[in-house]
Design a protein that fits this description.
The chain is mainly β. The chain is built from one helix and nine strands, in the order H-E-E-E-E-E-E-E-E-E. An eight-stranded antiparallel barrel has the order 2-3-4-5-6-7-8-9. Strand 6 and strand 7 form a beta hairpin. The protein is globular and about 40 Å long.
């Protein structure tokens, strides 16, 4: 069912307008998530005032952080969200599918697209270990 929902979301998303009521830059404000990826990377993600703040506290990207980045989110189902933000300064564009009841996050990101180093394309899943609101 979730795979069908993701496929449907992918097909419908380009047709959605900025006026779409399900798209918001504040519906996740007040949430803080801590989650761990399959490779051991652990992240704390905080959403506030339409902005995202994150810090990698374990794993290969330990120490990487960002704050004050505007986010967009879409409510997919009860306590299930699609979220993205764009860090133009670092050339990073992450997108997360956050399933709070299932305690899972699925992520895709293009990292470093504006640097001279090779661009990294991430596609991973994580387990939510803490949610606060």
């Amino acid at each position: 069912m979730r795979a069908k929902l993701l496929c449907l979301l992918w097909l419908v998303a380009p047709a959605a307008s900025a006026e779409d009521a399900s798209i918001s830059s504040s519906q996740l404000d007040g949430y803080e998530f801590q989650y761990t990826y399959e490779d051991g990377g652990e992240v704390i993600l905080t959403l506030y005032d339409g902005l995202v703040e994150f810090e990698w506290i374990q794993g290969p990207m330990k120490g990487a952080k960002g704050q004050g980045l505007p986010y967009r989110s879409r409510l997919i189902d009860e306590d299930v969200y699609f979220l993205n933000w764009h860090n133009k300064e670092n050339g990073n564009y992450p997108t997360l599918y956050i399933d709070i009841p299932g305690k899972r996050i699925f992520g895709s990101a293009v990292i470093g697209y504006n640097s001279e180093a090779e661009t990294v394309d991430l596609f991973d899943s994580a387990v939510i270990t803490r949610v606060e609101r």
